[in-house]
């Protein structure tokens, strides 16, 4: 089983359902009142609550999945259509995006509610991200496209994914990596001191506000 309508342990599920007592609303206290940039029946685009830089966005499924590998099993066409609509707008505002994801599993840490699938969009060169992950000892496998992650969803295997509009890499050996590993990689590229890339250490409210003002210009509809 890859999908649940919602999960009480997932802050994303509660926030997308309109629940007020979630982490985002506790931190921002109504300013802004929300961070959803676009939403369709399958996917939503949000500003990252603790952005690493201007233009740090998250693509999330509206139903509860633990990875985009699992999302691809059911909604690969919707994801492809969504990214085709987002990328030109994103590139015009922030620069070409890299897509980063830590794909979780249904049984990770004994709870299917540990995480809610989310892809980070950041204005960084994917080659620099891949080079840094290689220096950390991770070995990539090239994918034909994002849809190829579906095998990890079917097999319920964890992974790291790094891609852009041309190349896609997946890293299968993720167990030894620390929490928020991909945020730490992006933080190193951005020159953010350790541990200020941690979403609980520095929130950067002004960066989220600037990102929301920029994306308010977009005319974005999602499938």
From TrEMBL:
Which residue numbers does the motif Histidine triad motif cover? 116-120
Q: Which InterPro entries match?
A: Cwf19-like_C_dom-1 (IPR006768), HIT-like (IPR011146), HIT-like_sf (IPR036265)
Q: Which residues form the HIT domain?
A: 23-131
Which superkingdom, per the lineage? Bacteria
- Name of the molecule in the record: HIT domain-containing protein
Which species does this protein come from?
Actinomadura monticuli
